[in-house]
Design a protein that fits this description.
The chain has a single domain, classed as 3-Layer(aba) Sandwich (Rossmann fold), CATH 3.40.50.410. The longest helix has 15 residues. It has seven helices and nine strands.
């Protein structure tokens, strides 16, 4: 944000934080970005975004080690079908860059907060959406970073991939997610990412609802329905 530049009111600001740490293969990384692009092309996602008269500002942040993060594409304000389609196309052409080998969830949250505070928008809702397949192993704790986010009116939701850690849902639920209508979804593998992110975005972009909606599981076999426990 340029100093002195007017701040634009928007209906929602959303940071999509994509896991790019060493535990994520190139194929898995590409599945994440293609999954977001495909979700943005779904009619129900498009209609959900377009219901907001002031638009939805979205950025995609690629996170890994505590000292690294990449914003690509940068902030895009979505107010029309053409702008949504353009963002989807951008995501398909993003090249992976080195963001470190570690998993710094607390740092990812801190970067998300900074992005929301300095983007030139003022959202009625402000959210960070973190996808990941591992626990924090570098930098400050996600719980401390979350406290700072919540104090600034920012909600954090999670999408966990259970490829290496069967208990990752409970960890995200306890240490990462927080705020109004917070939730965590889980999938068994990156192959399920496209289905999950579409459902997650639809829920994330919906008007706020009460907390405590439970665990959502999207599995390759169970992908026709979401199971709540």
């Amino acid at each position: 944000m340029v100093r002195g530049q007017p701040v634009r009111d928007v209906s929602m600001e959303l940071v999509l934080a994509v896991d790019s740490s060493a535990s994520v293969t190139s194929a898995e990384y590409r599945l994440q970005l293609q999954g977001i692009a495909d979700a943005l092309r779904r009619p129900e996602i498009i209609s959900t975004i377009l219901q907001y008269s002031e638009g939805v500002a979205i950025s995609v942040m690629h996170w890994g080690g505590w000292a690294d993060s990449v914003l690509d594409p940068p902030w895009r304000l979505l107010t029309s079908r053409a702008e949504i389609a353009a963002l989807a196309a951008e995501l398909e052409n993003v090249e992976r860059r080195d963001v470190g080998h570690l998993t710094a969830l607390g740092h990812a949250i801190d970067v998300g907060v900074e992005l929301l505070d300095t983007n030139g928008f003022h959202g009625r809702q402000r959210k960070i959406d973190i996808s990941g397949d591992g626990r924090n192993n570098s930098g400050r704790s996600p719980r401390d970073a979350r406290a700072n986010a919540l104090a600034r009116g920012i909600s954090i939701n999670g999408l966990v991939i259970l490829t290496d850690d069967a208990g990752l849902y409970d960890y995200y639920d306890r240490e990462v997610a927080g705020g109004l209508a917070r939730f965590v979804m889980q999938i068994d593998s990156y192959d399920d990412y496209a289905v999950a992110i579409a459902r997650k975005l639809k829920r994330e972009l919906a008007p706020p609802v009460a907390e405590g909606l439970g665990r959502e599981t999207v599995g390759r076999v169970r992908s026709a329905a979401i199971h709540t426990r």
